[in-house]
Amino acid sequence: MNRSSQGIGHVFRCQHCAVRNLAVCGAMSDQQLRRLNEIAHLRKYAVGQTIMSHEEPVTFFANIISGAIKLTKTTADGRQQIVGLLFPPDFLGRAFRRNNPYFAEAASDVELCIFPNEAFERLVEAYPELKQRLFERTLDELDAARDWMLLLGRKTAAEKVASFLLLLARRSLITGCSSGGDAVGIEFNLSIKRADMADYLGLTVETVSRQLTRLKIAGIVKINGTRRIKVPVIRALADAAGQEMSD
Amino acid sequence: MNRSSQGIGHVFRCQHCAVRNLAVCGAMSDQQLRRLNEIAHLRKYAVGQTIMSHEEPVTFFANIISGAIKLTKTTADGRQQIVGLLFPPDFLGRAFRRNNPYFAEAASDVELCIFPNEAFERLVEAYPELKQRLFERTLDELDAARDWMLLLGRKTAAEKVASFLLLLARRSLITGCSSGGDAVGIEFNLSIKRADMADYLGLTVETVSRQLTRLKIAGIVKINGTRRIKVPVIRALADAAGQEMSD
DNA sequence: CGACATGTTGAACCTCATCAACCGACGTGG
DNA sequence: CCACGTCGGTTGATGAGGTTCAACATGTCG
Questions:
Q1: Residue B139 is nearest to which of A138, A149, A155, comparing CB atoms?
Q2: Which nucleotides of C are covered by protein (CB under 7 A)?
Q3: Smallest Cα–Cα separation from A62: which of A101, A10, A21, A25?
Q4: Residue of A nearest to B93 (CA)
Q5: Among A77, A238, B61, B190, which one is most buried in terms of CB atoms within 10 A?
Q6: Where would I find the H helices in A59-127?
Q7: Which nucleotide lies at the shortest CA–C1' distance from B196?
């Protein structure tokens, strides 16, 4: 089965939601949360599945419960760029926009908390706090996009890869409870494949792979298998992300 | 004199403002416009002047009346990327954000319609339409930033320069009353210098210059002096930019 | 185990950055 | 008025960083 869908209701309560206080729902009262709960349902997508497409109308908004979603844009001749990479507790959807210029695909297996269009938009109009929260999310996304513009336009391949790992490392500190301070270092999973990293960084898979081994050889990261990353000293990674690496 | 400042009041009325119905003010009633008018004043900046900096708190919002403003980010070792290029009737400022991670500089001589922080934010809270308008602006900026990510990450130098000219060409159709249909072609001024184009496109000035002459030789654009551009056939420029017209 | 996707490594090539010289426009001071 | 420096822009020569193409290695899942 590729896609599963289930109501939330008794099965799932926002109060127990893993991403509740980080997500857009964070600002809402219990009363409002109950309303939100009523219109929501869970849905799973397998890696590679299309979640939204610019070719068909978007019918829902969603909170990401687990997994990663990539938003992409593509040139006429097929070159692809990831313009947004969404992790829990990010929000998927464009309030106040009928069109959707992006293509959203599951970059890993994904669980979403789905809100159907009309019902959600009624809630947005009813609850200014929710609207405000969406606004702030959009501002965050804008800041992130502009950070990435600096990376895409001006950073070297080595800096790009380091920056991406740094992004994941920092993110893992926020989302998962941190396993300790700087002493232990940070460990996390690369939830996406090399090809996606390349599309996010404006590189090729080969270059990504080479830069990863360079970082490994330099001792800045340890790589277990292909997906498990450990960063002993965040500071070293941050240096590699910001300026030219000394060979 | 580097900076001039004057009240608006009798001198300047929103009703006569060149950018009024395109700007954020467009959604507002006469009554609301009067309130906005009361808190606004004009200010001019010469090319090269700093308008906002991440080093000092931002004290105002502004509509751009004329000229161009570049928002930039810079790496530790001085590489610069323009992450936003603002023309009339764009809006400058970050509602609901105390910090300002960008550096805003006049890319040409600029006229701004300034709204002091507190007064403007009171109006935003009082007039939901205004807040809504700001939200939509932010969504537009996000879309623009993501378009640019595709350009920065995946387009060739030739496509980048063509895309930029196309952007200006389309913009000139919206802002200035178009001088005619496709028959005549489009003519406009490059309001910024080559170095700024390079910083916007993630290139060097030399590459920008070379690609411009390539476009000139190919007959896709005519260049008069260094700043005056004429595009006989938009379609040809769009092809060179590597995108379909419809978008 | 076999098959297919994912990831790594090597070698040749090419686009674009770098360095340098030059041009024209402009403003300033002698 | 011209000499001079500065700034913006163009053009040329050269080389490095990253892509491309190809082969191989490692997973991963039936």
A1: A138
A2: 6-11, 15-20
A3: A25
A4: A139
A5: B61
A6: 117-126
A7: D8
The answer, yes or no, to whether residue A83 has pLDDT greater than 90, is yes
Q: How confident is the model at residue A184 (pLDDT cuts 50, 70, 90)?
A: confident
Q: Give SS3 for A146.
A: helix
Dist CA B126 CA A131 (whole Å): 15
B208 touching A (Cβ < 8 Å):
no
B247 touches chain A (CB under 8 A): yes
Pairwise CA distance, residues A236 & A165, whole Å = 12
Question: What confidence category does residue B183 fall into, taking pLDDT thresholds of 50, 70 and 90?
Answer: low
Does strand D come within 7 Å of the CB of B54? no
Beta strands, E only, chain A: 3-7, 41-45, 50-52, 60-66, 69-74, 80-86, 91-92, 103-106, 110-116, 186-189, 222-224, 228-231
Q: What is the DSSP letter of A74?
A: E
* CB–CB contacts below 8 A, A to B: 111
Higher pLDDT among residues B15 and B91, named by residue: B91
Residue B6 pLDDT level (bands cut at 50, 70, 90): very low
pLDDT band at B28 (very low <50, low <70, confident <90, very high): confident
